[in-house]
Structures are given as structure tokens and as C-alpha cells.
Amino acid sequence: MEKFEMAEICEKDIEHTVMELMKKQEELKKSEERYRVIIEATKDIIWEMDLTNHKWYFNGKLYDILGYSPEELENLEAWFNIIHPSDIELVREAIREQSGKNIEVHTFEYRVKCKDGTYKWLVTNSKCEYDEGGKPIKAFGVLTDITELKEQQKRIYDLAYYDPVTGLPNRIMLAEIINEKIKKANESKSKFSMIYIDLDNFKVINDSYGHSLGDKLLVEVSKRLKEINRNKINSFRLGGDEFIVLMEDIKDKEEVEQLSRYLHKVLASVICIDGKVFHITHSSGAVIYPDHGTDFNELLKNADTAMYKSKEAGRGNNSFYDDKMGEAAIEKIKIEADLHKAIENNEFELYYQPIVDVADARIKGCEALVRWIHPKEGMISPAKFISIAEENGTIIEIGRWVFENACKYAKKMYDRGYTDFYVSVNISPHQLLQKEFTDLILKTIEKVGVAPELILIEITESVLIESMNLAVRKLKKLRDKNIKIALDDFGCGYSSLTYLRTLPINLVKVDRSFISDIKSEEDTQNITNIIILLAKQLGLKVIAEGVENHSQLNYLKKHKCDMFQGYLVSKPVPEEKFIKLLK
Ligand code: C2E
Ligand code: CA
Ligand code: CA
Question: What is the pTM of this model?
């Protein structure tokens, strides 16, 4: 103003200056207005704190977000009261750092509790103002509610690291944890173990009852696995029906074996889903770091190999990895690849093992047992490839081939004058569950032109038979057409007198393990006699499997077993040899 007083200024100049001022004021108003609109429109909360008296100022949005009144958050103390206990130290440290040094802007995240008890994630950036002496007098900044973002981040994290069906951590998480454990184990010279779990027959359940029931079953299995989790033990889902149980700081192999036995017990107890009852068994394979592998992939591969060994040994087992298994794993991969071509290349052959009358030693029929004559590997036993064929689905085609050729053989024998000679055929649960199963059996019998009375099918009491009305219906249909049905391998697994009663069967085949246990004709410990008695009461015929010596045969005679099979008479042999046997 001094300038104006001193100068000789014309009116025009004054007018111009006033105009300029008004314009500036207008601009300022507009910019303030814009600023206000921006603040209101953003989700950010502007705050300011007087560091001399610790009084806060927030714009109103904070109170909307957290649900408090301005009085409730008047000072720093009140604010600290609502910070998440785990974040308090972080906030204090940030404040200390900020006020100590002349930092430009400081950004950090923490949680505060809302009036309703839930927590919100906030990110804040803050800046200080200092007096001439460099003492902080004022802090200000912007707070942003990032709860939604944090939840999204968590969802992305969960999606990446957890299995959505069972809630168990997944393979990616396992890989990261194992890498960490390897470092830790190297430092502390400690050991850890991984047990690879694969449910037996899960594919059958999934295919026959549908994925939704399959998922429920996996959820129940996972629940049981979660229940055994404690500080040393953690479970993961690899995918499908495969799980890993990790055990840290192990002392010795025995400790892992103990856990594995416990796992078998826990998972084997009955599972009820949608009114159906399942007995789930699993096969497992264990590895120990550092004995059985140096990195995650090697450990996992070897545990898988050991698990597969357990499957081969008859499921429901646990095996430890050993170096020889590596070769077996390579073999498995070869078998799997070659199986697909084996049928079109005509590489299968049927062998026949006589089924003999216990009382008069006459051959009543035979069991057809498939053999794979591999062009390079030579003969491969069904014990090796059937479970792989079941896994990759080729069992359906193989089974079809086996059944048709077994029927042709029965017809051939009939035409040769053996008019009551029957042929018994093994049927995989996977075949039985096919929609077209009964049709296929009946049509094949018709096509070949063999009498259905001469065909016997052998089924096993595996998990699928349980509560399986469908299987029962199918088998009844076949039995009504005079096809005979035998329950194979009776006595091992979850047997069950109830199956004997509910399944529409004509015969029971007592599992080899009972027969090999018979010590002498007078053996009183063995329970084969009880099985025979029971079957007879139910009107079923009994075949004993795996008879290798005379004392076993005499025992069977004594207890009035109907028929037997075994090396005592003959191993399974090709067609030409079988004819010689008959003569
Ligand atoms: P399985 O049905 O229990 O067949 C009996 C097995 O015991 C046969 O083994 C037979 O060679 C063997 N065996 C017979 N007598 C004796 C004996 O006195 N002592 C001993 N130690 N063993 C004896 P194989 O032929 O290796 O078959 C193994 C399994 O493979 C069969 O067990 C059956 O479950 C399956 N299998 C065989 N052929 C087929 C088939 O065509 N289809 C399906 N789905 N499975 C088949
Ligand atoms: Ca059999
Ligand atoms: Ca058997």
C-alpha cells in the first residue's frame, strides 16, 4: 500500500489493480473450492496434529469409517488404544523416526479397531513441521482406508497358497516351506520327513458318485489331517486325492513310522457322506531329508515312488523310499506309456489256472489270468500293470478284451466236449462301474455263443461295493441270467459279513493269505474253517486260493471246502498247456 500512497497514480491504474486483486481472490476461492471437493471426493482422511499438546484434527470421514465420535478420538492416547496390539510398536517406531530426523514423507500401514470391534487397515503418509530450533511442532498427513485392498491381497494370497476345496495349504506353499526347512535343517543338522498320501480307489468313488461327493470326501479327509496338525506336523493337499504330511525335527525313522501308522488309523475309520458309508484306505510313501533327496522336487518324486510301491504291495501300506525304487518308478512310467498301444498290438494273452474239486480232485473249471507279453520287457505280471491300467483308464479296454477271450475259451472247451467246464474272469471295480457293464457282458456272451452258466465273474470287495446299490443291481441282473458271481480275495480288506449277505453272489474265494497260514491238517488257530462254515450257512460255495501243499489240502478236505486253486496242482498256464493238464 505504501507504494500506492507514494506514487502519483492515475485512476486507470487503480481500477486495473482492483480488478487484478478481485481476479486473484476469485481464483483462490475456486482453488479452495476445488481442494475441498477433492478432499471430500477422495476416500482419504486429512489429519493434523499439534505436537505441543497432542491434539488431533481429522476430517469427518474418519469418524464415518471407524464409527467413533470426535470426542472419543481427541488425543494421541485414545488413538493408541485402538491400534492393533501387533502394530503398536511399528507406529511408535515410525513416529520416533519421523520426529527425530527431518524425513521428507513417511509411509506405513497398520490396523485400528472400529467401534464395532472389527479392524480396518490404514495406510498413512506423514510429514512434520519444525520450529527454528529444529524441534517438531506439527505433524500432518493423509490416512487411507486400505482394508478392501488388503482383503483382496489376502484373497489372492489364499488363492495362490491354499486349496479352495479343503482349505489346506497347497503344493506351492509346500515347496516354499520345504525350501525353508532345508536351509534350517542344514544349519541345525536336523532331519524332517514328508509322507506322501494317496487315497485308494478314490477315482472310482469320484467317477461313480460324482465330483461333489468326491469333494466332500476330500474335505472330510482334510479335516482329519488338520486335526493331527501340531507344531511339528503340518498337512498339505498336493492335488486330486494326494496329500503330504510334513513332520519336522524327527529323531529317527521309527517316529515317522509311528505317525504313518497313526495316519492309517485316523483316515481308515468310517466316513459317512450323504447317507453313504465309506471305508477309505490310503497308500503312503515316506522320505527323510537329507537321506532321500536334496531338494523339494527330488524329495517329492521319491516319496511318490515309495507311495506307489505301497500301492503295488496291496494298498493300505506305507513304504520308505530306497534307491532301488528309482528304477521301479522309471519302469512304471514306461509301463504307463506302453499300455496304450498294448491292445492294438495284441500283446495280451490269457493264462488259465485249474480250479479243482477238493473231494474228488477233478478239474471243474479255470480262472483266466491276463499276461502282458511286452515286446522288449518280456512277460509283465498283472500285479504290476493292472493298478496302472486302472489309474489311466486302459483297464476298460483290457477288461473287455479279457472277457471276450475268456468267453471264447469257454465256448471252445464246451465244443471239445467239456460241457460243464466253466471259466472264471476277474472284473475290475472300474469295469463294474461302467454304465454299459451289464450290457457289455450279456452282449459278449451272446455274440460268442457260450452258455452263461459256464461263465463266472470274480469281483473284489473294495471300497466301491460298500453301500453300492447300483453294483448290487447290476450283479443281480447278471445272476438272473445264470452267470455265476464269486467274491474274490475274501477275508482281506474290510470284509464283512454284511457283504456276504447283501451281495448277489454264488461263491466265495478265500484269500491266499489265510491258506498260506494253515500250518497242518489239525491247525486250530486258522480261521479258514469258520469262513467255510459261514459261507455254507449262506448257501455259498467256497474256493480256496493259493494251495501249495498237501497239508493245506487235507485241512480243506477236513473242513469240507468245495474247490481249490494253487501251485499244488498248477500255476496259471497258456491254453495249450492247460489241455495237457486236463488229460
Ligand atoms: P487273483 O485274482 O487273486 O489271482 C490269483 C493270483 O494268485 C494269480 O496271480 C495266481 O498266479 C496266483 N496264485 C495262484 N496259485 C498260487 C499259489 O499256490 N501260490 C501263490 N503264491 N500264488 C498263486 P496273477 O496271475 O499274478 O494275478 C494277480 C492278480 O492280478 C489277480 O489276483 C487279479 O487280482 C489280477 N488280475 C489278473 N488277471 C486279471 C484280469 O484279467 N483282469 C483284472 N481286472 N485283474 C486281473
Ligand atoms: Ca481272482
Ligand atoms: Ca484272489
Answer: 0.62
